[in-house]
Write a structure and sequence with these properties.
With 150 residues, this protein is mostly helical. 42% of the residues lie in helices and 5% in strands. The model is unreliable at 136-146 (pLDDT under 50).
């Protein structure tokens, strides 16, 4: 099973919360709003700041804010910021790490699969994730065309 780390999940939640904030938000404020311990939120925000997804401001009126809108941040960027490069196996994209690589009949065969997953994650933004959180009953549906030929 492919599974993202808990920190990546927390990062998505924190970023969507930041996207809903006007101005800057503090670590304690974000932690209280999303129900994640403050030290964990601080760790996640530090990694997101290093990756350029979040901007931090020091001082009495300091805090964190997004570096760009939710629609401009992909899930792939968040995963890379927290967990590192997206790779299904150690031999993906020519990476070294398998002692059997020279004998392996699957060497290089995972690259297209990994690329497809990376492309899919790049095409999903935090704005998409935020919209997906809206319960289906509250979404505005497109009108269904009526077939008038009966």
């Amino acid at each position: 099973m492919l599974r993202l780390s808990r920190l990546t999940d927390y990062a998505v939640v924190a970023l969507v919360r930041l996207g809903r904030s006007d101005g800057v938000a503090t670590t304690p404020g974000i932690a209280a709003a999303i129900g994640i311990p403050e030290p964990t939120v601080a760790k996640v925000l530090k990694a997101l700041t290093c990756a350029g997804l979040v901007l931090s401001t020091r001082g009495a009126h300091g805090g964190y804010r997004l570096s760009r809108p939710l629609a401009g941040i992909s899930i792939a960027e968040v995963i890379v910021a927290i967990d590192g490069p997206i790779a299904l196996t150690s031999c993906v994209d020519g990476a070294v790490g398998c002692e059997s690589q020279s004998l392996c009949p699957m060497a290089g065969r995972w690259d297209p699969v990994n690329s497809a997953i990376r492309d899919a994650l790049t095409n999903i933004t935090l704005a998409d994730m935020e919209d997906a959180a809206i319960p289906r009953a509250f979404r505005v549906a497109a009108p269904v065309p009526v077939n008038e030929e009966i």
